[in-house]
Write a structure and sequence with these properties.
The protein has 363 residues and is of the alpha/beta class. The chain is 27% helix and 26% strand. The protein has one domain: TIM Barrel, CATH 3.20.20.140. The chain is globular.
Length: 363
């Protein structure tokens, strides 16, 4: 098992309160074990799953949380799409309710990742064309509806540096994304309190040796950034370069309603997307989120040469630390018993959600 002290060969006990009561064992190398016990995965960018999109409001988030639990995600941030104010208010009200308690068999919804509408109209990616300039009064209203833990915005848009400073002062994480901003814009945003980058490399200005762009700002200065390791959004070579440059780069799925579902058409916010050949795209071919699950993300990282412990940290420990959540994302006494059990091929066998054992049908 991968504990805060390193790899141990031993046993872990779960208390009646759903937390880890004791860990016993001897230090060991990862090696070729028959079974691996790892911290549960924490996904900070989830738009949907199981045929349901977060923007559908109602009980959509609970369905999405139960879908991703089957793939080892034990906690997540429900992620919105750029949308008109009325639609955002409706979904945030529903997410406020969903985040108050964890339903049996579901991942814990830690809060909301507000991805847009405060992005650059020239770098929408798969976001609908409803981008607007940020205003703190509006954001504070949204925060009264749901616990917004993370906001993605474009720093070069007028007034956004002031918003970054205020959100940072309030303890909200700010990520830079869907941006046409320069290297200098990225550096200034980090100096004003921004803390990360949304789906690094995608929907942002790229790296050029005379114009380093937003990617250059991330590689040169970031402590944290998120990246989609589905092997479609980012080439493995670029992934490895980012992991060498950014000490605590963590991985997300950016999953859509198509995750865990067969090929076909699904909703992503107000848009229709098509799942085919392992990806999700708009009608014009633009990548539109992913079908990735966190267990597959782990396998992909290991496949490109990332050691298992490092891969696990990028799916559990680093996202937990980024949010300032110190009782998840790690196997240690007193932490929540959010645990995944995998076989020697890194196929899921069991998932524990705050101590609740989720038996997997196909395990």
């Amino acid at each position: 098992m991968l504990t805060s002290a390193g790899w141990l060969d031993g046993e872990l006990q779960i208390g009646d309160d759903g937390k880890i009561a004791a860990i016993q064992g001897r230090l060991a190398a990862a090696g070729d074990a028959e079974r691996y016990i790892l911290p549960g995965f924490i996904d900070l960018h989830v738009h949907g799953g199981g045929g349901v999109d977060i923007m559908e409001a109602g009980r959509a988030a609970q369905h999405v949380a139960s879908t991703h639990a089957r793939f080892g995600t034990t906690s997540l941030l429900a992620t919105t799409m750029t949308a008109p104010r009325e639609a955002l208010q409706a979904v945030l009200a529903a997410l406020g309710d969903a985040s108050r308690s964890r339903q049996p068999g579901s991942a814990r919804i830690l809060g909301v990742h507000l991805e847009g509408p405060y992005i650059n109209k020239g770098k929408l990616g798969a976001q609908p064309d409803n981008a607007v300039e940020a205003a703190m009064a509006e954001i504070n209203h949204y925060r009264s509806l749901a616990p917004i833990s993370l906001v993605t915005l474009a720093p070069e848009v007028a007034g956004h540096m002031e918003v970054i400073r205020e959100l940072s002062r309030q303890g909200v994480r700010v990520q830079l994304g869907h941006t046409l901003g320069s290297y200098e814009d990225g550096v200034a945003a980090l100096e004003n309190g921004a803390s990360g980058f949304t789906h690094l490399f995608n929907a942002m200005t790229g790296l050029h040796h005379r114009e380093p762009g937003m990617v250059g700002a991330a590689l040169a200065h970031a402590e944290y950034a998120e990246l989609i390791p589905d092997l479609l959004h980012v080439h493995p070579g670029a992934m490895r370069a980012a992991m060498r440059a950014i000490p605590r780069l963590f991985c997300v799925t950016d999953s859509t309603a198509a995750a865990g579902m067969p090929d076909g058409q699904y909703k992503l916010g107000s848009q229709t997307v098509t799942k085919c050949l392992g990806g999700v795209r708009l009608a014009d071919g633009t990548l539109a989120g992913s079908t990735l699950t966190m267990d597959q993300a782990l396998r992909n990282l290991v496949e490109i040469g990332v050691p298992l412990a490092s891969a696990s940290n990028r799916l559990s420990l680093y996202p937990a630390d980024y949010l300032g959540v110190h009782d998840r994302g790690r196997l240690e006494e007193g932490a929540w018993a959010d645990i995944v059990v995998m076989d020697s091929n890194l196929q899921l066998q069991r998932v524990f959600l705050e101590g609740e054992c989720l038996e997997l049908v196909n395990a």
